[in-house]
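User: Run a structure prediction on this.
Assistant: Running it now.
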Amino acid sequence: MRLFKTLLFTLILIHPIFGQVCCSIVGSINNGGGTSSTNWGKHWPSKFDDRKSFNWVGGFNTTFTSDDHLRIRYGASVSAHGQISHYIGKRNIGYIQLESSWLQIEEFLSFSNSSSDVFQLGFKTGMRHLLPGKLGYIFEELSLPKSPTFTNTQFPFTTGAVPIFMVGYTNRIQMPWAIKSPSFLADLSLSVSLSKNQKIQDNVFLDDAVNIHLSSSIYWIKSLALSPFSALQSQKLIAPLSPWDTERQSRRLNVMIIGLDLTPTHHDWRWLHLRIDFPVYQWTSNGLFPDGSEPVPRISLSINNNGVFRGKKKI
């Protein structure tokens, strides 16, 4: 059990997004306002789009955690992403994405009490599909992260990376009072995603994950949208193989989160997003959360921009 707790703290380096970015050191923060911070401005299929143009979106995300009381502590983290998308048929959008991340980490479990910076690059490709009527969207994504690089080569705990496949569903449901009160929780955004490792590897400790997110928006403050959200996250933890076991033990880590997104509604400031989230309940299928995986409050700031690559007009 001691080995299980001390070797698995790096699993927090794998962080969920709108679906799942397993094995991404920083990744992005949880869904809120109907979309992930690194998905603001992303291209979703519509019946009214110009299907001939390529769309692009890029951004940065920085996150700070409240974990000074823990034995594994994470400093500032920064991630960047860029994505290009295009229609494939009338109802489908395909995309490719490049991303990079940097993270600071400290451990107080070993005798050395060491720290390290961690860098990682990743590639994603996926599809988004518009369902008939008002049924919403389904989406799938393949994530191909590189193994993280630790600047401290003597850092006692490291982790690897494997390909991840994710599938999900999202929809926005109009509430009965939307016409009379469009400024207060007029619609409910739902997102559900499932992800699974495509390879078994000794230094990867998280496998299949389930993420469920609910959110809405309030427009009572001039030029500012408030988007409260809640999330349920569940992921399978796989322990290292101990000298006394013939196969790796596993348990599920579960956490309920509530949070708030703050997004300016003025067009000059829509590229800026602030998020605060808190874990309100957590439980495991067996035992406790290992060091470094404990849910903690977070505050995140995202900067995103998007546009269209338009071809030259014929004269």
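Residues 2-7 form the longest helix (6 residues).
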